[in-house]
Amino acid sequence: MLNLKILKINFHSEFDPFYEKTHKLFGVVSCFMHHSAQFNWSAEQISLEMRQSTFLIAKDEALDKVVGFIAFREGLDQIEIMALGVLPEVRRNGCMKQLLVNLLDYSHQQLEEGCKVSKAIVLEVHEQNESAIKLYRNCSLFEIGRRRKYYSDGADALIFSSVQV
Question: Across the strands, what pairs with 8?
Fold first, then answer.
């Protein structure tokens, strides 16, 4: 059983007051993304994404290590998930579901803090990633579209959202 702590982190610059604490995590998450992602991003793309995105990090307290993450960008009316993943050894143990629920809760908090509507969460997934598609549907995300031949293998990307259109 995982003992997860969810952290919300930005890796913006060395001028961030928490830079020293987050810099170590930056290296861990960057390496994690590079080795575990099912897409082919260069080290430069990962580094750029890490500086532009906000991260939800799942840290297993018992193992004292990062076991999952969601990288997202927040706009005026939506939260776009840019990348996400969990370590292979913790898959199907609820880690990603806990991260997604945490992000959904965060999007609903925006409504309570004065926004007129909660922000829609949007993401893309490889059409053959059946376990991820099942998870997204179980987390009340809806398939709202498709990007034809989006991936390098010629497969489509399914677009999911927390708001049904």
Answer: 56
